[in-house]
Write a structure and sequence with these properties.
The protein has a single domain (9-143), classed as Jelly Rolls (Sandwich). The protein is α+β, with helices and mostly antiparallel strands. Helix 2 crosses helix 3. Strand 4 and strand 5 (65-70) form a beta hairpin. The two termini are 28 Å apart. It contains 3 helices and 8 strands. Helix content is 31%, strand content 25%. The strands form 2 sheets. It has a 4-stranded antiparallel β-sheet with strand order 1-8-3-6. A 4-stranded antiparallel β-sheet has the order 2-7-4-5.
Length: 153
């Protein structure tokens, strides 16, 4: 693995990227399209080619809180890798989006057939989960805590 930010495809080696891209399907979403809803079945994921996607979290009694905005080469969706395969966030195209779409079952099968590849995918996605957990915590504190998250940025 290299030192690219964990949320980008470039965090994987060139060989792992190529293996993953071999099973990609090109898709597009218009602005405002919901890619998935929190709690829904996570059976696919995307890597953004162009455009932006926001991740949001339902907050009881309030509008959904935008947690993060994703763009070029970034992974949209990680819940497909971990049972029970249910989305932990929601996602919406904030601009027209072109993306590579991946069938989750096919990628999990590839990971089982090649444990080294599976380990790289698990490390990549695990890094993204850790990053998004921190982003969600910080964003919710900024929105709803009396003193915010305390982060100076």
């Amino acid at each position: 693995m290299n030192l690219a930010p964990p949320s980008t495809l470039r965090a994987l080696s060139a060989a792992d990227q190529a293996r993953l891209m071999d099973i990609a399907e090109e898709v597009s979403f218009p602005q405002g399209a919901r890619l998935f809803e929190e709690g829904g079945h996570a059976d696919r994921f995307w890597i953004v080619r162009t455009g932006t996607v926001t991740l949001d979290l339902r907050v009881p009694g309030r509008r959904a809180a935008v947690i993060e905005t994703l763009g070029h080469h970034q992974l949209v969706g990680w819940s497909w890798l971990y049972a029970p395969y249910a989305w932990h966030l929601g996602a919406e195209a904030t601009t027209p989006v072109r993306a590579h779409q991946f069938d989750a079952a096919a990628v999990r099968a590839l990971c089982r057939r090649d444990p080294a590849f599976g380990q790289h995918i698990a490390e990549w996605v695990g890094g993204i989960v850790a990053h998004r957990l921190h982003a969600a915590r910080t964003r919710l504190l900024d929105l709803y805590a009396p003193y915010g998250s305390g982060n100076p940025w």
